[in-house]
Amino acid sequence: MNATIITIGDEILIGQIVDTNSVSIARQLNEAGIVVHEKCSIGDDADEIVRTLRRAMAVSQVVVLTGGLGPTKDDITKKTLASLFGGGMRFDEEVAAHVERMLTARGIDYNALNRSQAEVPVCCTVLFNRHGTAPGMWFEEAGCVVVSLPGVPFEMEHLMREEVMPRLKAHFALRQIVHRTLITSGLAESVLAKRIEAWEEALPPYLKLAYLPSAGVVRLRLSAYEVDGERIGREIEERFAELQRLIPAYVVGFETATVEEQVHRMLTERGETLAVAESCTGGRIASKFTAMAGASAYFRAGIVSYANEAKTTLLGVDADLIRRCGAVSEEVARAMAEGARRVAGADYALSTTGIAGPAGGTEEKPVGTVWMALATPERTLAVRQACGTDRGQVIDRASAFAIRLLRDELQRRSR
Amino acid sequence: MNATIITIGDEILIGQIVDTNSVSIARQLNEAGIVVHEKCSIGDDADEIVRTLRRAMAVSQVVVLTGGLGPTKDDITKKTLASLFGGGMRFDEEVAAHVERMLTARGIDYNALNRSQAEVPVCCTVLFNRHGTAPGMWFEEAGCVVVSLPGVPFEMEHLMREEVMPRLKAHFALRQIVHRTLITSGLAESVLAKRIEAWEEALPPYLKLAYLPSAGVVRLRLSAYEVDGERIGREIEERFAELQRLIPAYVVGFETATVEEQVHRMLTERGETLAVAESCTGGRIASKFTAMAGASAYFRAGIVSYANEAKTTLLGVDADLIRRCGAVSEEVARAMAEGARRVAGADYALSTTGIAGPAGGTEEKPVGTVWMALATPERTLAVRQACGTDRGQVIDRASAFAIRLLRDELQRRSR
Fold it and tell me: Which of A6, A11, A14 to mutate: most B Cβ within 10 Å?
């Protein structure tokens, strides 16, 4: 069962917004066993909508469109679908009453433009949008299901989850898609590929392996599309277990678990606490931990000691030490971690100090040079790491390395 | 001049990653006067790549592909392009030497898989990738330019900016695309549309108006595609000024420059400095500023005072005050901002303290309640803001609100 996702809106084509709708739609279709064959973004142009939709319907039995359902002149999806599928428009009293109620509650005039949101093509089934004013629409045509949803992410999300998916599951007899993802760290993509070469060669043709490298991590995804669930489910689990046995020391997690999630879990379970002192990573590490619900159980404090004086005032790093060794040095990284641990009264403290660039690099310490340290109740570790050449990359990688340093130490201590 | 962007990778189709590459590419093409006609995401499948590329070349003179250039078996873009455009492969010594140097510096084995990255189609021009191991490729075929770039965002970004755009500008005689965006707040989309109806009706056909509603804000974008720059430039400015005069009280900003970029520029120009004290935003604000090159000129320090004791130890907030008023209160927000300003020796300091959720909400202070304060040389402002119901959303919105508070104050002071 194939699907095509079409997102409509000039704002996507000029790069004014990031399209997250298609990500969420793809994920939900996948979970239900529907293979997304293609994603397409086109402008608010009737001919283009018709052309793309026809092409999609030739290869996919499910087409999901988002966008272009607002009340203003630039929104043309509804009219275009009505004239393509035929039968004219009708006025939906239930939608009209809902739109009026919603607007009145928000103190907004119910005018002709809003009333027009209750006009729907005669040939569609209305998907009632509890969270917004533009209804979703479900068309059945030539063996295909075409669904049109509003582009506002949380309205689309609710309609997809509560209306579209249950209907698709009832309408089609769906098969299964199985994905398993192994998260590895410590081996470059090419080295990892060599290490598991024989295993990869021996995979049956219906199991697909993908490498997804990102800062400090390579994810390996094993996928089977539209299979007989039970047998393939067992097979994929066996292959997955073999894979883990090939590289036990490099496995850091499964599916989408991140290294910070591992640390979060370990610290929470042990009742231990954390502080961070960041220079080049500028708050990124603190931000990764505090983004997780429950972080307040262990996260004591973060200090972004960007200026040298802040390292001295806030962390008690000796100003002479900074002068003598430089802010980017093993000595200062250690003093920052120990200072953070002390001032925050935490069990562990991580620190980073480095040259994020683009300026500030030297022959001896080029852009990307980062010293990081971890202070624990027993000792302080320090590591120097080359974290790339681009500012964003240096911040990403240094944060990932530092968190990994903590994870490794926590794992060592638990043995 | 039309362009098609094709992003390649199964991970996009299953919703495992958000495609930000095409956003950045679209923006750069647009700025140079190239109209992005369509964006497409397809899987790592040779037939599909060929089919999509052929279709794109029939309607666009510029096709940019990303992804599928890694060293592993699932990366097939290079081979597919070589066989489509013909001529076989050659070994590029310069790329090989660069790959070896890069890997050696990172302590990674230079093996057969990595060496294969230096294999390039004979018929392409190599776009040298200083920041990674997969080279970009430039093909000219049947009047079209086809560019293939690696999918790692910052590698793609550098190649696009430093190699692709200068070459496209030299290769084609490009016309202009002009966009002006007015950011409004306080009028619902439908009410706004009614308010500016006569102005919209009177727009000439080559000026296109788009409505882009999002949380609390409606952006109005006026666009002219591939025009004679000077005359249309004047025309669009006049219409844009008329539009502003229709809704002066609802205009909150222009274009897509982020608020933190505005603050970055203002502080840098004035030689003034900033500190932040974050509780619920957990380092996000510090991280937004320090992500920008040159932030060290004004960013002194950030304190993520997550635990109450950290508010006292690091920022000097009276422990009694916290007990009396609660950590999420106007008084504590003010004391945090003033404390951060003092300990960091900065001209301005921002603070946030709130309930990010999912736990911790009460009747009086539900999840999403955030107090934020700004301490300046003359006074301290404080604002309470409801920032939503989802943890990620609360952190995002609270960070955005706080930075906007600073931007508004900086603008007031410059008048």
Answer: A14
Contact criterion met (CB below 8 Å) for B18 and A18:
yes
The residues, any chain, with a CB within 8 Å of residue B412's CB and separated by 6 or more, are none
**Domain CATH number, residue B209:** 3.30.70.2860
pLDDT tens-digit series, residues B97-156: 999 998 888 788 888 888 889 999 999 999 999 988 899 999 999 899 999 999 988 899
| Cβ-defined contact of B299 to A282 (cutoff 8 Å) | yes
Q: Is the same domain home to A186 and A272?
A: no
Between A242 and A214, name the one with better pLDDT: A242
Query: Which residues of chain B are within 8 Å of residue A4 when distances are taken between CB atoms?
Result: none
Identify all chain A residues contacting B212, using CB atoms and an 8 Å cutoff.
Answer: 11, 16-17
Q: Is the pLDDT of residue B216 over 70?
A: no
Which candidate from B28, B38, B190 shows the least CB-CB separation from A42? B38
Give tens-digit pLDDT for A120-176: 999 999 999 988 889 999 999 989 999 999 998 888 988 999 999 999 999 998 887
Report which of A338, A345, A340, A355 is spatially closest to residue A394, judged by C-alpha positions. A355
Give me the domain span that covers residue B139.
2-171
Of the three residues A120, A151, A171, the one that is the final residue of a domain is: A171
Q: Tell me the pLDDT tens digit for each residue of A38-50.
A: 999 999 999 999 9
Reported as a pLDDT band with limits 50, 70 and 90, residue A112 is: confident
Return the pLDDT at B215.
59
Yes or no, beta carbons of A359 and B293 under 8 Å apart:
yes
Residue B299's closest chain A neighbor by CA?
A: A306
pLDDT reported for residue A402: 96
Q: Which of B190, B293, B395 sits opposite A113 (nearest CB)?
A: B190
Helices (H), A174-318: 189-195, 197-201, 229-246, 259-270, 284-290, 308-315
- Measured between beta carbons, the chain B residues lying within 8 angstroms of A302 are 282-283, 302-304, 306
Contact B302 A303 (CB under 8 A): yes
Share of chain B above pLDDT 70, in %: 98
Share of chain B above pLDDT 90, in %: 63
Residues B210 and B293 in one domain: no
Q: Give contacts of A17 with chain B, Cβ < 8 Å.
A: 23, 212
Residue B257 has a pLDDT of: 63
Domain shared by A394 and A334, yes or no: yes
Q: Which residue in A23, A152, A343 is closest to B18 by CB distance?
A: A23
CB-based contact B282 A286, cutoff 8 Å: yes
Domain-terminating residue out of A171, A190, A224: A171
Contacts of A201-209 with CB under 8 Å at 24 or more apart are A203/A239, A204/A235, A206/A232, A207/A235, A207/A236, A207/A239, A208/B10, A208/B74, A209/B73, A209/B74
The ipTM, to two decimals, is: 0.72
Using one digit for the tens of pLDDT, what is the confidence trace for B50-71?
A: 999 999 999 999 999 999 888 8
pLDDT at position A415:
62
- Contact flag B304-A283 (C-beta cutoff 8 Å): yes
Whether B157 and B14 share a structural domain:
yes
DSSP symbols for B160-212: IIIIIHHHHHHHS---EEEEEEEEE-SS-HHHHHHHTHHHHHTS-TT-EEEEE
State yes or no: cis peptide before A358, omega within 30 of 0: yes
Q: Report DSSP state, residue B282.
A: T
Q: Measure in Å the smallest separation between the Cα of B142 and chain A Cα atoms.
A: 24
Residue closest to A87 by CA, chosen among A64, A55, A119: A119
Contact B71 A193 (CB under 8 A): yes
Q: What CATH number is associated with residue A167?
A: 3.40.980.10
Strand pairing partners for B147?
B64, B138
Mutate to test the interface with B, among A306, A313, A342 (most CBs of B within 10 A): A306
